[in-house]
Automatic annotation (TrEMBL):
GO terms for molecular function: RNA binding. The lineage of its organism: Eukaryota, Metazoa, Chordata, Craniata, Vertebrata. It comes from the Eukaryota. This is UTP4 protein. It holds the Pfam family WD40. One of its GO terms (biological process) is maturation of SSU-rRNA from tricistronic rRNA transcript (SSU-rRNA, 5.8S rRNA, LSU-rRNA). Transmembrane segments: none annotated. It comes from Pampusana beccarii. One of its GO terms (cellular component) is t-UTP complex.
Length: 686
């Protein structure tokens, strides 16, 4: 594997925002997730749960509810009182409509996706039609006092159930009138406090299911206005509900961090009579589970601890192995750290500011695993704040450390950084070319002479950087066929001759920078690209896909390399393919051209192409484990994959020089110490 001096960085103070709501789209196998800072993320379950799209948040745009409607159109609403449709190709908002009732607490789409209903702060319930290009107000339904916290459509689309404080109502869609009102507090003895109906589900059997602040999941016969069943699942609030497509399973999220499954099961073996039974409790979160969803094979939950948890149901999964594995996602699948190799600087991206740090240094040497004393401590040089309510889309620092660029939804910013001894000054480049905003990815050339800006419709802008502090638009690269999708990944060759761009349609286009023309397109592969990089010597493009496959494509020869064909013929190791997290960064060691350095959240790997690929009988051992084996056993385990799991969770890895690595970690416990205290629970022995 070779020996490296490692800068182990733990001063990136990232605290991911909590999960506020979820929306599951079964036909496309995609999950929409909204966080408390307004960020919206799209996860593709068919592409190994890859986070394929991210729409950054906005301070004036909270998201309290998400829903899919009109096919694959995504709508959100929040306390700003605005209903927003998201453009999933341009990763931005496409249209906004004022709800007209103050803050919006809830929203739901009917089964056919043609109508939206919203619940507002002033107690109004409003109906909208989904039309091409937006939504259109249709009518107001019966208004009562009290904010509408949750809504649900009956599958027949004839009635709507609405939950509020102490009250559950059923409204007739055609007349707009309330046809049933149920006091949920009536069934609690000696009530001292109000009962908040947090979530609601309307079943085809005309049963309404509610979860409330008393920790109960209750089943109501709405036509008679009577309580059918009640299950107390928590001593605190039951915050969220979701039902399976067949309506035989319900998942419940609580404020204690626990999730529960209720199943509709026969009373006796062979009996036709069925009852709801609480079957499975899960404790995968530490804080409030504000959102849950139910796919055909899994329970999905999101909490204020920022974790998205996907728990497969054993009875629904055919293979009791990798497919049934528990998956937890805390960190974004995109780059939030960039490195200035020559200047040994790191740029950290937060929602509304950037931090520039200088790495520490040492003049000592030591043995393997030894911690070396620092001669100079890491230094926080600059904090660059973004003005306005928009969150930062992407950012980058040049290899020489003299340029910083970032983009929001409506503005692109470029700064020149000057270093004079120990002092650092920063100046904004005044006249930046007007680009097709926003920029989705930024990449500086290796010699810091130009900046590549990934934009909408598959285009890539090239800016030439001028001394002492300016820039001009050089050229715009466009794919041969028009696409609405934005470019989300860029790779630039070290010699400045090639650039590769990946769009939301997963097509990889390669452009020649000598003649500014499209060179070729990598053969289509039916999975999302998670990382790619161009080898500095061979100009081979190394591609990592969401299904953990690796490809190597020769740009000059416009074909896959012999090594890549060997990988596809022999296949990668089973344990490699069954990893839960995706490769997020690839780099190379110019002194060892056969080495490919790559990492995911829980592993750093040096892939040596000169060694044979392991078969499934070989062991993919961590290097620390491998060192404990006898010499003969180590030789038997000699293969291409050299894996290190000492550093976790990994947000970024890069090679500063041939013997020096920088690894940016963000321990989960460091994040949890910055979260609000969870609900206190009595534990045995305390």
């Amino acid at each position: 594997m070779g020996e490296f001096e490692v800068h182990r960085v733990r001063f990136f103070g990232l605290v991911p925002a909590g999960v506020r709501c979820l929306a599951w789209q079964p036909r496309s196998a995609r999950l929409a997730l909204a966080r408390t800072d307004g960020t919206v993320e799209i996860y593709n379950f068919a592409a190994n749960y890859f986070q394929e799209k991210v729409i950054p948040g906005h301070d004036a745009r909270s998201v309290e509810a998400l829903c899919w409607a009109g096919g694959y159109r995504l709508f959100g609403a929040g306390l700003s009182g605005i209903i927003t449709e998201y453009d999933l190709a341009r990763l931005s908002t496409s249209c906004s409509v004022d709800g007209g009732g103050g803050p919006i607490w809830s929203m739901a789409a009917n089964g056919s996706g043609t109508r939206l209903v919203i619940g507002c702060e002033d107690g109004s319930i409003k109906l909208f039609q989904v039309v091409p290009g937006g939504i259109q107000f249709e009518r107001n339904l019966d208004r009562r006092k009290g904010r509408i916290l949750c809504l649900a459509w009956h599958p027949s689309e004839s009635h709507i159930a609405a939950g509020s404080i102490d009250i559950l109502r059923v409204l007739d869609v055609s007349s707009g009138q309330t046809v049933q009102q149920i006091m949920v507090n009536y069934h609690v003895q000696k009530v001292q406090r109000e009962c908040v109906v947090w979530s609601i589900v309307f079943l085809a059997s005309s049963t309404i299911v509610t979860s409330d602040s008393f920790g109960r999941v209750q089943f109501w016969d709405w036509q008679r206005g009577t309580l059918v069943e009640s299950h107390t699942v928590s001593t605190s609030s039951a915050l969220s509900l979701a039902v399976s497509e067949k309506e035989d399973s319900i998942v419940v999220g609580t404020s204690t961090g626990a999730t529960y499954q209720l199943q509709l099961l026969p009373v006796r073996v062979g009996s036709l009579e069925k009852r709801w039974v609480r079957t499975k409790p899960f404790q995968h979160h530490t804080h409030d589970v504000r959102a849950v969803a139910h796919s055909g094979t899994a329970l999905i939950s999101g909490g204020l601890d920022a974790q998205l948890v996907i728990r497969s149901l054993m009875e629904k999964v055919q293979k009791k192995g990798y497919e049934a594995a528990l998956r937890k996602f805390t960190f974004p699948h995109r780059r939030l750290v960039s490195c200035a190799r020559k200047a040994r600087l790191l740029l950290f991206q937060f929602t509304q500011h950037l931090e520039l740090w200088r790495l520490g240094s040492t003049d000592k040497t030591g043995k393997d695993g030894e911690v070396l004393p620092l001669r100079r401590m890491p230094e926080h040089l600059v904090q660059l704040k973004s003005k306005g309510p928009e969150h930062i889309y992407c950012s980058c620092v040049s290899p020489c450390g003299s340029w910083i660029a970032y983009s929001t939804a409506s503005r692109f910013h470029l700064y020149r950084v000057h270093y004079e001894g120990d002092s650092v000054s920063i100046a904004k480049v005044p006249k930046v070319p007007k680009l097709l905003l926003p920029a989705y990815q930024l990449q500086f050339a290796t010699d810091s002479s130009s900046l590549f800006v990934a934009s909408a419709r598959g285009s890539v802008h090239i800016l030439q950087l001028l001394e002492p502090g300016g820039c001009k638009h050089l050229h715009t690269l466009r794919p041969p066929s028009e696409t609405p999708e934005a470019v989300y990944l860029l790779a630039v060759s070290a010699d400045g001759h090639w650039v590769a761009a990946v769009g939301g349609d997963w097509a990889i286009h390669i452009y020649s920078l000598k003649c500014f023309k499209h060179h070729c397109t990598v053969p289509n592969y039916s999975c999302a690209v998670t990382a790619l990089a161009i080898h500095p010597i061979t100009n081979n493009l190394v591609i990592a896909y969401a299904d953990q496959q690796l490809f190597e494509f020769s740009i000059p020869e416009q074909q896959y390399t012999a090594w890549s064909r060997t990988v596809q013929n022999c296949g990668l190791h089973r344990l490699w393919l069954e990893r839960d997290t995706h490769i997020t960064h690839i780099t190379f060691n110019p002194k060892n051209p056969s080495h490919i350095l790559l990492h995911d959240v829980y592993m750093f790997c040096v892939l040596d192409k000169s060694l044979p690929l392991p078969d499934n009988s070989a062991l993919l051992l961590n290097q620390s484990t491998l060192k404990q084996l006898p010499e003969t056993a180590r030789k038997r385990q000699l293969h291409a994959f050299k894996i290190c799991k000492k550093f976790q969770p990994l947000l970024f890895v890069d090679l500063l020089d041939e013997n020096c690595l920088v690894m940016v970690e963000r321990p989960i416990m460091d994040i949890k110490t910055q979260l609000p205290l969870p609900v206190q629970q009595k534990k045995f022995g305390t």
